[in-house]
From TrEMBL:
Entry keyword annotation includes ATP-binding: yes
Alphabetized Gene3D superfamilies for the sequence: P-loop containing nucleotide triphosphate hydrolases (3.40.50.300)
Name this polypeptide is given: ABC transporter ATP-binding protein
SUPFAM superfamilies: MOP-like, P-loop containing nucleoside triphosphate hydrolases
InterPro entries recorded: AAA+_ATPase, ABC_SmlMolc_Importer, ABC_transporter-like_ATP-bd, ABC_transporter-like_CS, ABC_transpr_FbpC, Mo/tungstate-bd_C_term_dom, P-loop_NTPase
MF annotations from Gene Ontology: ABC-type ferric iron transporter activity; ATP binding; ATP hydrolysis activity
Segments forming a coiled coil: none
Gene Ontology BP annotations: quaternary ammonium group transport
Length: 363
């Protein structure tokens, strides 16, 4: 019998962070973090402002001296508290930040070839131009940084970080200074370049959509700790606690008591078989889990579920609704429906639940 062994089982992690703790004055900002990144894997460190993401990335980069724990690159220890600190420039990692400064006296091409001194001239130039082309900057190779917009400078900074093909890229909010349209394009270009080069990547972001767009795996942080690690699908569809659910977008929150393995809500019964009978539960329903069907009933039938308000948000419509159950329970909920769906105020409706986007937790 042969066992299947994946590449990630045999190859040393591109980055390994073990039991990392970090304190500024008396403020403990990283509290025991373990994280591995496999070769070629894109991992997003996601979390609210101040939860310690940047500090962790700076520790991996060597910009903060490690206080507690261990850091390895490619299986080799590069930082141990009080013993070993390989400086950032010797770690063979690519770094790009929200506002990465370019060398002002060098052209775009010279900025990108800067880290390629070990290559012959021609190869250096070809490599830089290839990357600048992939990031939409091929027409600016002779331009100087002060002549570029912020978004263009950011693309050059990404090309400069990627040019030496580092085994590990550390990116801290590299797209957040860009306006929405440009950000989408540069994110897309960057993702394709990272995958083509096969660089393992740790990307810090506070934007869940960005994390889902970029990541093979997401590590969601709160208050110095990783709360859940998994694929975007695992975090979105199998969140382990209410914080994880709410971090990925608005949810309808209801409460109820577990009775015969279920909690009754105004939109139907929700399975709670894993919770103790009689316990209080929190039911979280994503807006897209509410499926609405218009009913041919008089608009005055207000003991039936009905539309309170409908707004077009662009790609989706947001329906404010009043949900009624047969036993007299009532709740104001938000539903999201793809495309243009704008029923009139008072329109009676039936509501079905997509249970895959309903989550239940003990209160
Ligand atoms: N050099 C420093 N000296 C003192 N406190 C610091 C220092 N750097 C960060 N902190 C504090 O550590 C905490 C974590 O900061 P960090 O920048 O790691 O968070 P973050 O999750 O990246 O936040 P953001 O998304 O806002 O950048 C914050 O309370 C911050 O004020």
């Amino acid at each position: 019998m042969t066992a299947t062994v994946s590449l990630t089982d045999v190859a040393a992690p591109a980055l390994s962070l073990r039991d990392i703790h970090h304190t500024f004055a008396a403020n403990q900002v990283v509290k025991g973090i373990d994280l591995n990144i496999a070769p070629g894997e894109v991992v997003c460190l996601l979390g609210p402002s101040g939860c310690g993401k940047t500090t962790l990335l700076r520790i991996a980069a060597g910009l903060e001296v490690l206080q507690e724990g261990a850091v390895s690159l490619d299986g080799k220890p590069i930082a141990a508290p009080g013993k070993r600190h390989v400086p950032p420039e010797k770690r063979n990692v690519g770094l790009a930040f929200q506002d990465s400064a370019l060398f002002p006296h060098l052209s775009v091409l010279e900025n990108v070839t800067f880290g390629l001194k070990h290559l012959p001239n021609r190869e250096r130039r070809e490599r830089a131009i290839e990357l600048l082309t992939q990031l939409g900057m091929a027409n600016y190779i002779e331009t100087y940084p002060h002549m570029l917009s912020g978004g263009q400078q950011q693309r050059v900074a990404l090309a400069r970080a990627l040019a030496p093909t580092p085994k590990l890229m550390l990116l801290d909010e590299p797209f957040s200074s860009l306006d929405a349209r440009l950000r989408d394009r540069i994110r897309d270009d960057t993702l394709h370049v990272l995958k083509k080069l096969g660089s393992a990547t740790l990307l810090v972001t506070h934007d869940p959509e960005e994390a889902m767009f970029m990541a093979d795996r997401i590590a969601l942080m709160r208050d110095g700790k990783i709360i859940q690690t998994g694929t975007p699908r695992e975090l979105y569809c199998a969140p382990i606690d209410p914080f994880v659910v709410t971090f990925f977008g608005e949810v309808n929150e209801l409460r109820g008591t577990v009775h015969q393995g279920k909690v009754q809500t105004p939109v139907g019964a929700v399975d709670a078989s894993w919770l103790p009978e009689g316990s209080e539960a929190q039911v979280m329903i994503r807006p897209e889990a509410l499926r609405i069907k218009e009913r041919d009933l008089p608009f005055e039938a207000h003991n039936h579920s009905h539309v309170v308000m409908a707004k077009l948000l662009g790609r989706t419509s947001l329906i404010h609704l009043c949900a009624h159950s047969d036993d007299g329970q009532e709740a104001h909920l938000h539903a999201r429906v793809p495309g243009v769906f704008l029923p009139e105020e008072g329109q009676p409706i039936d509501i079905d639940l997509d249970h895959s986007q309903v989550f239940i937790f003990p209160r």
